[in-house]
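Protein fold
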Amino acid sequence: MSESKDPGTAEVEEAAAAVRARLGKRKPVAAIVLGSGLGAFADQVGDAVRIPYRDIPHFPIPTVEGHAGELVAGTLAGKIVLLQSGRFHLYEGHSPAVGAIGVRVFATLGIGTLILTNAAGGIRRGMAAGTVMLISDHINLSSRNPLTGPVLPGEERFPDMSDPYDPALRSIARRVALRERVALAEGVYVQLLGPSYETPAEIRMLERLGADAVGMSTVIEVVAARARGMRCLGFSAVTNPAAGILPVKLNHVEVMETARRVAGELGTIITGVVAEL
């Protein structure tokens, strides 16, 4: 598809107004972005209100299997949350501004905490499929940044990225994982453009750069969120060893199947974190 028109302040405000009208008196304390194969977590939200993307101006319809294309507002661990089930990936032909429109809408709605999940390939040796990884830092190799162009109201031109993933939230996540006896790895996530999976040579390069897991999302959203002053927490569901780590072929169906198996453990940690917000 051709690259989407960049949404600016007016488009973000229109989308936020449409979501606000459906939320009514609900005031979410956190927004949660669900990665590939992790959409079933939305079923855990009580008193849910589902807002299809077709009802939100300037929200494209996802074209990737495993992304439902709706926002879900409701109660989780006694708190009001807003879930995004369906990303706008750069490899679908979207600009970084389109990829970050969800985050900008959340910020416009007054949501201060953003929790992001993704399905990723494991680069670190010994990181088996089914591992939940807490993201400690990231590397942006997508060649894109949502802050290029005019500075949108409320955003920093040069946001500090020394702590992109909030240390206090990461501490809560570790504590919840320990309490709930969920194994939790921690490492650096790298975003590439995609949609092709990486070659073994590229994985060796990423390993030397210090990456522990690789995927095609998340970083763009975190950059936009930090420019708006949102606290971020990120998790990767490691669905497969990256290319060349083991002599196996990669395919999206198996990625989603593994993500669905990991979803329960990841959901337990996210629920515990939300309870402490």
Summary: The two ends are 40 Å apart (CA to CA).
